[in-house]
Structure formats: C-alpha cells, structure tokens
C-alpha cells in the first residue's frame, strides 16, 4: 500500500495551527505527529507551507447531464482540484431535472467515471414528486432541495408554497436545503423597473429587484415552518445581514436543527462592482450592499452562519451577455473560492482556523459526512497544501472552467494552492493533474 509523508507542514485543523508530519497510507491518514519516519514512504517537503483539510462545497451546479455546453462533472471537478475543493454536492437542475431516484443514481454513475473529486448529488423536489423525494436514502444522498428548480408553472420556488413546505417538513427525516426568496416581491419589483427601463434595466438594479425584503420575507416564513416541525433545514446562500441575525449562534452546531451558509461572492463583491463587472456578478440571490457583505462576514465569525459555499453555476460568455433579462444568473467559482478567502485572511478579516472551520469541519458536521472534513487519524486523506506568499494573477490562460471566464479575472491573489490530495492520491500538483484516479461517493450518518 502506497505511503506518503507530508513533512513539517503548518497543519490548520480544529482551531489550531501546529507544525506536524502527516503520514498517508493508501486512502487514509495513518498518523499525525511532530516527527514521522518511514523509509518506504514518499516524502513531500512542506516546510513553510500550510496544510488544510480539503474544502467540501455543498452547493455546486456542474451542469451534467444535459447542459454540458456550460460545464461537465469532469471539467468542473478538475477546476475544483486546482481550488482545493476535494468534495462537492451538486444541485438537481440538470437536464432532465433530478426528480426521480433513477435519475439521481444515473448522476452518481456518471460521477464515478468522471469526477476527480468526491461527490454527492441532491434529490430534487417539486409539486409532483413528493413521494419519490421521500424515498431518498439518508446514508447515501446529501439531501433534498429545490435549488435551481421551479416548483410549479408559475416558476416559484418552494419557499413561496408554505402549505406544501409544511407537508414536506411533516413527512421527511432527510435534510432539506432551500433557496429562500419571495417571488411576489421580486415580480413586483421587476414590473416597477421594467415600466421605467423596458428590457434594458441597469444591472446595478439587480439587488433592488431581488431585494433584501424579498430575502428576509421568505426566510422568516421558512424558518417559522421548520421550527414548527423541528425539521432538519439548511438555508443556502444567505445574502443579507438582516437574515443572518435570524439564525441561532448559541446552540452547538451538532445540535442545531436549522443551519445556514454564505457564499464567496457575497463575501467579496458589493453592489458597487456591478458598474465594472455587470452581468458577470449577476447571481440569485443578488450581490447587495457593503453593509450586507460586512454583516455576513461578522455573522460567520460569530457563528450565526455556519458554512461557506460557492454556488458555482457556470454559463457560457454568450449566456451572460445581453440585457438584464437575457443575461443568465450565476457564475463559476470553485477554482478561486479558497484563494479569495485566503485574501480575506491577509486582510485580517478572518483567521485560517475559521476558514477551515467554515469550509470543511462544519460542512462535515451539518451533513454528517463520514470520515471527512478533518485532519484526523483514520479519516480519508482529503488535503490541500497552500503557500500563503506566492502571488499569481487570474487570467484567461489559467482559468480551468469549461465556460472559460471568471468574475475574478485580473485579480491578483497572494496565496497559491500547490497540491490537492483526494483519498490519499495527489490529484493536483503545481498545475499538473493525475487523472488516473477518481473521487468517491460521500457517505453520511443515517440520522441527520
């Protein structure tokens, strides 16, 4: 069985940074100690470098199957490797939508042949498939979600159907993850600005259309229902400071029944960036004010918000062009999420320990992922080795997304990801890839 020793790394794990050696035997972490010797092991010199648990991204849209002109499981998992993301959970708005158990398993089969990262896929839910969604296996599937799906022909999301949500919460013991915005408020705001600008609504009005009120109203409604049933609810991509304060920061994470996340783009950009970047930062929920950006970071540090995700949602350049109504919402992020978070560390806005907690430890805890998310003896060796002082600039030549663009283009980052390990295999090494190994299906504890 192959052995590797990562020597003299600054290991960031469980609230501490310690200089350690890490022994990998096969897929797992065999030993973590001040000094490890083994004449049969490959030695990786990590002096002066920082070793983190691989990131676990619980919200990506890898577009496979059916939308592979935008992205594929292979292309985006490859970009994730360069970004230090070793596991992902993919949304059901592929084509066809993942609304049956058979279609769900077909996605797992696809990933088993094509994904360089570890993987899980959400079961989708709409108005017609409740009984099918309730068959979801907690130990083998990350959860149920409506993210990216339309609940009905009126193109609403589940947060706008409280009666149906009440029924779902009363029946399921599976983690339910939701996108939370109020469609009626968004619709009224759209009509208001369309009356003024026609189809050519300025992009910087996106946060006025998909407004704080739209987010806050829906989130309050969903939280009330979840608390009624003591359901296991996770709220995706919280985008406002006012929403963040609604979430409990007193209960230990393991005991929380309701959890929430922030996304990298909401922690980095503000509404002022629409002037330069336009539709390239058009996401749903929208990027909002400086106060929201600062409030989300504060909520993360104070544990109102539990994890950080990407909502990686690539579109082609053509799909991101045109007027307000033609330019699609979403953008690619998995390759640049960790470098952006490390930039916030350099700005002294968040610690390395907190980044690891929010991108690895807490994701594993929220989803009850087995043997991942920590640098612990016996756990899978999902690791990322970084140099905090190795500048590089994002350019078209080093962007790995199939869509070929990034909202971070021309951004200089101070930190560089050097190596990424998945299940003990070095998949990414200074720009080179080992594509002979594939990731594994994530497994979960039955009780969420």
Provide a quick synopsis of the model.
The protein has a domain at 55-367: TIM Barrel (Alpha-Beta Barrel), CATH 3.20.20. It is built from 13 helices and 20 strands. It has helices at 73-82, 101-114, 130-133, 162-171, 183-197, 206-209, 212-229, 241-244, 264-268, 274-277, 290-301, 337-346, 352-367; strands at residues 3-13, 16-25, 28-33, 42-45, 50-53, 55-60, 85-90, 118-121, 123-124, 144-145, 176-178, 233-235, 258-263, 307-309, 383-387, 392-393, 412-413, 416-422, 425-429, 432-433.
Describe the fold and architecture.
The chain is α/β, with parallel strands linked by helices and 448 residues long. It has a domain at 55-367: TIM Barrel (Alpha-Beta Barrel). It contains 13 helices and 20 strands. Strands 1, 2, 3, 4, 5, 15, 18, 19 and 20 form a nine-stranded mixed sheet that branches. Strand 19 (425-429) and strand 20 form a beta hairpin. Helix 4 (162-171) packs parallel to helix 7. The chain starts with a strand and ends in a 15-residue tail after the last strand. The model has no long low-confidence stretch (mean pLDDT 97).
């Amino acid at each position: 069985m192959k052995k590797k020793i990562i020597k003299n790394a600054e290991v960031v794990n469980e609230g501490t940074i310690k200089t350690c050696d890490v022994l990998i035997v096969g897929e797992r972490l065999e030993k973590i100690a001040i000094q490890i010797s083994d004449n049969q092991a490959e030695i990786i010199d990590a002096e002066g470098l920082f070793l983190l648990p691989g990131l676990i991204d619980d919200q990506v849209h890898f577009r496979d199957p059916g939308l592979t002109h935008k992205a594929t499981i292979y292309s985006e998992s490859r970009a994730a490797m360069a970004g230090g993301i070793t596991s992902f959970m993919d949304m059901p708005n592929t084509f066809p939508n993942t609304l049956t158990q058979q279609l769900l398993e077909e996605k797992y089969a696809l990933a088993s042949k094509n994904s360089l990262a570890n993987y899980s896929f959400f079961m989708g839910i709409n108005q017609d498939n409740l009984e099918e969604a309730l068959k979801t296996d907690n130990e083998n599937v990350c959860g149920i979600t409506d993210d990216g799906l339309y609940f009905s022909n009126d193109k609403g999301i589940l947060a706008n159907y409280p009666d149906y949500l009440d029924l779902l919460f009363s029946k399921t013991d599976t983690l339910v993850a939701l996108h939370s915005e109020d469609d009626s408020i968004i619709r009224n705001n759209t009509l208001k600005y369309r009356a003024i600008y026609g189809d050519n609504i300025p992009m910087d009005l996106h946060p006025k259309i998909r407004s704080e009120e739209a987010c806050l109203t829906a989130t309050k409604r969903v939280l009330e229902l979840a608390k009624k049933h003591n359901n296991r609810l996770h709220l995706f991509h919280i985008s406002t400071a006012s929403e963040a304060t609604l979430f409990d920061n007193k209960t230990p994470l393991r005991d929380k029944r309701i959890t929430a996340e922030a996304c990298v783009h909401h922690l980095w950009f503000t509404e002022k960036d629409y002037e330069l970047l336009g539709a390239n930062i058009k996401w749903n929920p929208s990027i909002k004010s400086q106060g929201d950006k600062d409030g989300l970071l504060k909520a993360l540090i104070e544990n109102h918000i539990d994890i950080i995700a990407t909502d990686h949602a690539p579109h082609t350049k053509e799909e991101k062009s045109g007027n307000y109504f033609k330019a699609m919402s979403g953008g690619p992020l998995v390759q640049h999420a960790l470098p952006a978070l490390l930039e916030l560390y350099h700005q002294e806005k968040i610690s390395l320990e907190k980044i690891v907690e929010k991108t690895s430890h807490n994701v594993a805890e929220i989803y009850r992922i087995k043997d991942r998310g920590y640098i612990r003896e016996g756990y899978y060796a999902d690791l990322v080795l970084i140099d905090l002082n190795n500048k590089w600039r994002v350019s078209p030549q080093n962007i790995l997304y199939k869509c070929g663009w990034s909202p971070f283009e021309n951004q200089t980052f101070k930190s560089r990801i050097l190596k990424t390990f998945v299940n003990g295999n070095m998949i990414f090494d200074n720009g080179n890839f080992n594509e002979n190994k594939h990731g594994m299906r994530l497994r979960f504890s039955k009780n969420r």
